Amino acid sequence: MTLTPVAIAAGFNVGYCRGHLDWAFRWLSSRLTDFRVSSFIETEPVDVPGPQAPYLNAAAIGRAALDPLALLALLLDLERARGRLRPAPRAPRTLDLDLILYGDLVLETPALVVPHPRFRTRRFVLEPLAEIAPEWMDPVTGRTVSQLLAALP
Fold first, then answer.
1. Model confidence over 83-132: pLDDT tens digits?
2. Residue 65 CB: number of other CB atoms within 10 A?
3. What pTM was estimated for this model as a whole?
4. 131 φ/ψ angles, rounded to the nearest 5 degrees
5. Which of 52, 53, 104, 127 could, after both became Cys, cross-link 45 (CB 3.0–4.6 A)?
6. pLDDT given at position 86
7. Are 17 and 41 in contact (CB under 8 A)?
8. Torsion angle of alpha carbons 71, 61, 1, 30, nearest 10°?
9. In angstroms, rounded to a whole number, what is the distance separating the alpha carbons of residues 68 and 113?
10. In angstroms, what CA-CA distances link 55 with 48, 94, 136?
11. Which residues are catalytic?
């Protein structure tokens, strides 16, 4: 069985945010090997409609036996289990889990784009990811997570 390194970003701004993070990471740690989680950081909402509460963000890395679409399905199941609704794009959320990197895979399908298309410009993703995987290379740009973070304004 081949295990692929994966990076997941997590963010929440509805309900008991720390509890959502703890629950999601406990669940993921049972499905991924070599699982590690960054520190949690609070950030202001970015690119959202109207006023929203601050987000609690973190990143996790591990090794997955699941293919990328199966891992995405698992992440979406976890979101639904915590009451995630999608009334509109970028609406407040109880749990948001994004597959950021899947090894060195570059994939673009209607269901999934890997690497995540906006992770390179989002400090709330790069900062926690750099804490636990600073040398992980973005397969599109050839830059490490640390280099991507340092390039942000």
1. 756 555 665 666 889 999 999 999 999 999 999 999 999 999 999 999 99
2. 13
3. 0.90
4. -65, -35
5. 52
6. 57
7. no
8. -70
9. 10
10. 11, 10, 25
11. 84, 93, 96, 98
